[in-house]
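batch_manifest entry 22 of 60
target: EF-hand domain-containing protein
source organism: Dichanthelium oligosanthes
requested by: lab member K.T.
priority: normal
notes from requester: please return tokens only, no post-processing; we will run our own comparison against the previous entry in this batch. if the run fails, retry once and flag.
--- input ---
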Amino acid sequence: MERTSSWFGWRRRRRKAREGKGAGEEDRHKVVVDGSEIRELVEDREAFGMLVDSKFRQLDADGDGRLSVRELRPAVADIGAALGLPAEGASPNTDYICSEVVSELTHGTSQSEVRVSKAEFQEALSDILLGMAAGLKRDPLVILRMDGEDLRDFVASVRYEPSAAAIFSQVSSEGVPLRQCLLAALQQLTVDHGVPPVSDAWVVKNIVEPALLQLPADQLEQPASRDGFFLQLKKLLGAVAERLQEQPVIVAHTENTYDGSGVKRLLANKFELDKLLDSVWKGVQAEHKSKATKECVITALDKMADAASLPHYGAVKQVIASPDGIEPLHASSPAAVDAVVDEAIKTATADGRKLVGEAEFKKLLTDTLGAVMRQLNGNPVFVYTNTVVHEPLSGASALFSSPPPMTSSPSE
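--- output ---
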């Protein structure tokens, strides 16, 4: 396994050395993960084969030469960690790939009942990793190192006063304690302002709560006034910045704007569209082919999502209403893009109550995509996710350290 381990280290050093040339000061606070290292790993047959052998032996405790499907996920997580990827949940579209491959392996049966050979294990890992790589190429994952510098810049900037005023108008009401208003204000601020996700328990315990202790306890329990809120919020953010300087937080960030342009490109390419529709139709389970139920249509659309530059159904969890960063107001809409898809399916009359053939099913999918395109074109959806990286925290932090001198490189 020596060659595979050195492969990881060499690739990272080489990429960092390449990115370090002419990089600005800001680049030291973020690393863009675009899937290139994952593709290089899978395409390096010798390294990938050795990695599969090692993982298979490690997981095959009883030595019978077969593994349960449920053991795929930890194997993928370990490989992702070695490549510097954060834990599952940081990138919804790439997480979907793993679930999809596992679903295809189990064919609806219990994961504990399905046993896979090493060849099947290697093929599944390849499919998952290449799917992740494709997703990251389309929607790169940005690993941010939050050390308080951006937060100090925000507080000192002209953006702070109008942002604080907008937040106060949202979080304040008669008789509400100052502590509650300040905590609500932190919920309104994002990584764009230098604040890590305060929905994370570790951030609350190690960053927010110690920072609150630096404020006057008696005032925190009093009803919030506008002036008091402005003064104490600035102090709180300064204390948060100090905590971040002592304990930087690594955050995996993704963002995308879905405006229907990807759907438009797909619909305009008749050859590509027809080929994709043929593939989707062949993949529809026999018992579902006679009826276009909503579930069946959603499953089919998910298989077309990458080509149409759409998120997979259920993947979108957060929507920000003001991406320009001037006002930190964001609307909680767990299924913003899903709602567009649901409405498009209704528009295309996919009620599942009538029998459909291949041509009608393909027309239904095309009409649904057209409805999605029109809705997103009129009302684009900006989506972001921010996930605190806990494991492997040390590995993620190492991405921001200076690369070691490169005196020699192994041949490719």
